[in-house]
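Why does residue order matter? Because the sequence determines the fold. Keep that principle in mind as you read this record.
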Amino acid sequence: MTDYIQVGERFDRNVAEHEMKVILDDGLHRHLLFKKPGTTDQHFRIVTWPGYLTFCGDMGTFTFYRNADMFDFFMGSGGGISPHYWQEKLQAGAGSEGSRAIAEEWDSDSFKQSVLGCWEDWLQGDSLPAPEATEEVKEYLRDNLLNCCDEFEAVAAVREYDCDEAPNLLDDFWETSDTRLRYHYLWCCYAIVWGIKQYRQREEQEAA
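Structure:
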């Protein structure tokens, strides 16, 4: 799983010299640009209109739909990030599958953990498998699933699973997760919260 803290620390370094430029500020219609002066490296924009917020820039484009004022929605987590919950609000033109596709990616470590989780459930089943059966299943998993190099190979290995000693071992595999949130998506989550804070600090300073 992607380490949220590491992404957050890297984000802080990336935007250490960023400044905010307000291009539009008309109620719920906003257009904010964040970048280091003199360069567009790691720049990003936050654009809102009623019910929507779009993040775009070097790290990709993500559009969310939820509340009339999306700034209130994103700050509802107390200034932290809630990437899994926010992912449900992504608009990708293809329903929930589309939102998962742009926010998640296959992860070999998560896949192996899912396979091993099925293995452990099988070992703890109602009837204790014979030692020779256990070795047969272990060898099958090692040779056919635990050394998969990519998502296509992994999915094929699960679908083609055929081990006589434990025919039902992977029956619940698809209820587990073999993905992780993409680095760019997590960076976007940090950027949105950080950007909103910069905007609200500007409002407070102007009101003082």
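The helical segments are 4-14, 70-74, 83-87, 95-103, 108-123, 131-144, 151-159, 183-207.
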